[in-house]
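Reopening: C-alpha cells for the adenosine monophosphate complex, inputs below.
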Amino acid sequence: MFRALLLAPPGAGKGTQGERLAERHGVPHLATGDLLRDHVARGTDLGVAAKAAMDGGGLVPDALVIDMILERIGGSEPLKDFLLDGFPRTLRQARAAFEWGSLMGRTFDAVIMLQVPEEELVRRLVERGRQSGRSDDSADVIRNRLQVYEENTAPLIGFYEERGILLRIDGTGSVDEITERIEQSLSPLLEV
Ligand code: AMP
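Re-run output (same inputs, fresh job):
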C-alpha cells in the first residue's frame, strides 16, 4: 500500500524525488504540473483554460484541477496506489481529495513535505530556467510562484499535521541523500 503526496514549494525537488519514489515503489507518479503542461501542448480545452494561470505562476482553478486528478486516480477502476506530486495545492483541493479518499477507502498514507530555504529555491529555479527553458522559471514568475505557495499551499501543512501523516524532510543535500531521508521516514508508515 502506497498512497502518498509530495508537498513542497516550487524548486524543492518534488519532480525529481517523485519520479524516484514512484519507481522504487512501483506506483504511478502523477504530477499535476506535467499533466497540465501536456494539456497546454496538445491545446485541449483544459490546456487553453489553464495556460494563462500557469504562465503567470498562478494556480489553475480548483474545479479544473480536481476534475483532472480525480478522473485520473478514480474513474471506472480507481487506482490503489499512487504518488501525487503538486496536488493538492489549496485547502479546497485537499478537502476534495480527502472526501474522495474517504468515500473510496483510499485516504493518503503519507504526505512528504520537502523543506528548503527560500534562497536555495530561487537559485535552483533560476538554474532550471536556464537549462530547460521552462517558461515559468523566470525571476518575476518565480517570485509569484513562491508567494502563491505561501498563501495557498502552506496552509495544507496544518491540515495534514492534524491527520498525523505529515513527514517533514530536509530537502537540502544530494538527490540520493534526500531520497534516503524520505525512505527512512516513510518506512514505519508503510509497514502494515
Ligand atoms: P509544477 O510543475 O508543479 O510547478 O506546476 C506548474 C504550474 O501548474 C503551477 O505553477 C500552476 O500554475 C499549475 N498547477 C500545478 N498543479 C496545480 C494544482 N494542484 N492546482 C492549481 N494549479 C496547479
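Residues 10, 32-33, 36, 53-54, 57-60, 65, 86-89, 93, 136, 145 surround adenosine monophosphate (CB under 6 Å). Residues 175-190 form the longest helix (16 residues). Marking as resolved unless the reporter disagrees.
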